[in-house]
Amino acid sequence: MDYKKLIAAIRLCGSTPGVEQCKKCVYWEDGDIYRCIPKMTAEAAEAITELLAYKEQKEIAVNPFEDDDPYIECCGICKSGEYLRNEDGNRNVFCGQCGQKINWDALDALSDGEERKGK
After folding, report:
1. Residues 35, 21: Cα–Cα separation, whole Å
2. 12 and 46 share a domain?
3. Are residues 111 and 74 part of one domain?
4. How far is CA 31 from the centre of its chain?
5. Same domain? 47 vs 67
6. Count of domains in the chain?
7. Contact assessment for residue 56 and residue 90, using Cβ atoms and an 8 Å cutoff
8. Within this chain, do residues 47 and 81 fall inside the same structural domain, yes or no?
9. What is the pTM for the complete model shown?
10. What is the pLDDT of residues 62-96, one digit of tens each?
């Protein structure tokens, strides 16, 4: 699915275009809106569903430790360890690289709960 073309078509359709404008739309079906509009809205619904699934996945907190090793911090999704803490060393709730939610409670489950220095 070409998201940019879908966005352009939705904007065009939503602007109450005339027939000449409709002919520019990638969903144009020889003037029959009963064919082009359903196809466009079906793809829009699919795109929104994909975005919602992506958002929900980002909300699932992941373990920030590589192979459950409490000394190697990295995002469980993008594997970056660079943006898990801010410049003061405090833990970020989300990975600064990919936006994944981080489950810092895993630290207590993997070690004796003593906070590590660094990173």
Report:
1. 16
2. yes
3. yes
4. 36
5. no
6. 2
7. no
8. no
9. 0.57
10. 888 877 777 889 998 899 988 899 999 999 999 99
